[in-house]
Specification:
- The complex is a heterodimer of chains A (261) and B (283).
- Chain A is mainly α and 261 residues long.
- Chain A is built from nine helices and two strands, in the order H-H-H-H-E-E-H-H-H-H-H.
- Chain A is flat, with a radius of gyration of 24 Å.
- By secondary structure, chain B is an alpha/beta fold.
- Chain B is 37% helix and 22% strand.
- Chain B has helices at residues 45-53, 55-58, 105-116, 120-133, 149-161, 179-194, 206-212, 230-235, 237-241, 248-258, 270-277; strands at residues 4-13, 22-29, 34-39, 62-70, 73-74, 87-90, 167-171, 198-202, 215-220, 223-228.
- In chain B, the strands form two sheets. Chain B has a six-stranded mixed sheet, with helices on both faces. A four-stranded antiparallel sheet of chain B has the order 2-1-4-5.
- Classes of the chains: A mainly alpha (261), B alpha/beta (283).
- Chain A binds chain B through residues 3-8, 134, 137, 151, 154-155, 158-159, 161-162, 165, 206, 209-228, and chain B through 53, 55, 59, 79-82, 84-85, 88-91, 93, 95-101, 103-104, 106-107, 110-120, 123-125, 127-128, 131, 137, 140, 145, 156, 159-160, 163.
């Protein structure tokens, strides 16, 4: 009888070339973008946001990127802009809204701050839509990172849907006891404590049992481990990462010089 | 030499005000033996399992006395993780027995073998074999967290069985499962028994205890009050008196005896009950 193995191939590397890059290369690219947005003036931040969107589109994740981008980064930037414009004191008043005065100085600061936030936020968001955490963990393990550290990274990502599922069960249970959970903000706020309490308690118990599970599976055994999966790290990408490091150093030097001069 | 030997083991959880959860436990389990531990809730069954695996007192802190020997070695001298090479442990809750890192059932099965550092080819061969054995072919590509409780428990049990430890401690594996999932889990346990593994099982479904066990340990208030074959234990009136449920076949037989139907041997399983009643049936 012939045996057909069902062993998995290398972890998901589907999609565009960007998505197939080694996770450390992806981290390098995103890190460089974020660094540039942080160290230079707002036009660079805006440019980084645009580049991030273009790269997400190139990776076939434009919709996922934009869906989160406008709900989080855009809203955050607008709030920053409005607050800075109206609450940073200045001599040049550009508009008045009741007792509030928008100043040119506040507007300048708001644009500068919001531009940086837009750049850094967009770069981080790009990472979330192109990075496969399993591949990242594998890459880290191949570089000798302690499995306990990589476990925490993976388990944290995986626990979110589990917690969401548990939250739904708890809310159903509380509803069956007559606690209203779906209505206006005030009702939802009152339902928060009877919902979050059991969630925290069951999570604590789960952590204990999870620790026993890991011990039972030999997680704390000393010695080398075997992974079924392996990641390719082509010479071209290794060279690219070195180039990214050099560029990052230049960016830092450029940013510092810009402040000094 | 016993596979599992407990010598005068006592244990009290740290900070607990009540009496010791285990008191003066002496037990010797032979290699390849299937021993079930029964008793009312709070009688110390789960703590006994934890003591055998070394979780008490190494994970659950408390006052421990006595010795637990695995294949003749005192586990007090062993690292808690290293014991995974010799003892498999499966517990009640299927939902918390997923590693949390695997994105497919296949990866979940391979997780423990990877921790043991086995060669890749051997891991693949063993996982493939376990997939066939546990009939998990339809689940291998599924996310472990997306499975039903019964499926998760089969995966959890398989994830331990694939590590091929000589000793398995299984604590109420079917307490949260439906009848079909329960049968699936016991089918797997039966196969492990067939492979000659030493099995320590805590279970409330007495029909399964009666059907599979070589010996049954009856516990009450942290002590072992009786040890014997399933027939000896369930025939003893003390077993029911301390709140332990009897196998359904035996309960029916006892009720039939009250209306004058006698049994030569107390039936423990449905097959035994039917086997003794069938010759007397008027067709």
């Amino acid at each position: 009888m012939t045996s057909v193995t069902m062993a998995p191939e290398a972890p998901a590397a589907a999609g565009s070339r960007l998505a197939r890059l080694h996770p450390l290369t992806q981290l390098g690219i995103v890190g460089l973008l974020a660094l540039a947005a942080l160290l230079f003036e707002w036009p660079v931040g805006v440019a980084v946001a645009v580049v991030s969107f273009v790269l997400a589109a190139a990776a076939g994740r434009a919709a996922a990127f934009f869906r989160v981008w406008w709900k989080t980064i855009l809203v955050l930037c607008l709030i920053i802009l409005v607050l800075q414009t109206f609450f940073i004191p200045g001599e040049t008043v550009v508009a008045e809204l009741g007792p509030l005065r928008a100043t040119q100085e506040g507007l300048d600061k708001g644009i500068g701050f919001a531009g940086r936030v837009a750049g850094i936020g967009s770069a981080v968001l790009l990472l979330t839509v192109i990075l496969d955490v399993h591949r990242l963990v594998l890459a880290l393990e191949q570089r000798g990172v302690n499995p306990r550290v990589t476990y925490v990274i993976l388990a944290t990502v995986n626990i979110i849907p589990e917690m969401r599922k548990r939250m739904t069960v708890i809310m159903d249970a509380q509803r069956s006891r007559g606690i209203e959970t779906d209505a206006d903000v005030w009702v939802r706020a009152r339902a928060f404590i009877p919902t979050i309490g059991p969630l925290i308690l069951t999570s604590i118990v789960s952590v204990e049992e999870k620790a026993l599970t890991l011990e039972s599976r030999g997680f704390s055994i000393r010695g080398p481990r075997t992974s079924l999966e392996s990641l390719d790290d082509p010479a071209g990408e290794r060279a690219l990462r070195k180039a990214l490091i050099v560029i990052a150093v230049l960016v830092v030097v450029g940013g510092v010089l810009q402040w000094v001069l | 030499m016993g596979a599992v030997t407990l010598e005068n083991v006592s244990f009290a959880y740290e900070g607990a005000e009540e009496a010791k959860v285990l008191q003066g436990i002496d037990l010797d389990i032979r290699p390849g033996e299937f021993v079930s531990i029964i008793g009312a809730n709070g009688s110390g069954k789960t703590t006994l399992c934890n003591a055998i695996r070394g979780f008490a007192p190494k994970f659950f802190k408390g006052e421990f006395a006595g010795r637990v020997l695995i294949n003749g070695r005192d586990i007090a001298d062993e690292e808690i993780g290293e014991l995974a090479k010799e003892i498999g442990f499966v517990f009640q809750n299927p939902f918390t027995q997923m590693s949390g890192t695997a994105r497919t059932v296949y990866d979940e099965l391979a997780f423990g073998l990877g921790n043991l550092g086995l060669p890749r080819d051997e891991i693949i061969a063993r996982v493939d074999e376990m997939v066939q054995l546990a009939r998990l072919q339809d689940l291998v590509d599924r996310n472990p967290f997306q499975l039903s409780g019964g499926q998760q428990q089969r995966v959890a049990l398989s994830s331990i069985l694939v590590m091929a430890q000589d000793i398995l401690v299984i604590d109420e594996p079917t307490s949260q499962l439906d009848p079909q999932s329960t049968d699936d889990v016991f089918e797997l346990i039966e196969r492990m028994k067939g492979q000659g593994r030493t099995i320590v099982l805590v279970e409330h479904k007495m029909e399964h205890v009666a059907a599979f066990s070589d010996r049954v340990v009856l516990m009450d208030a942290g002590r072992i009050v009786d040890v014997g074959t399933p027939r000896e234990i369930f025939a003893n009136p003390r077993t029911a008196a301390i709140g332990t449920r009897l196998p359904q076949a035996l309960t029916i037989a006892r009720q039939l005896e009250q209306v004058g139907i006698r049994f030569e041997v107390s039936p423990l399983t449905t097959d035994e009950l039917v086997g003794q009643l069938e010759p007397r049936m008027v067709r």
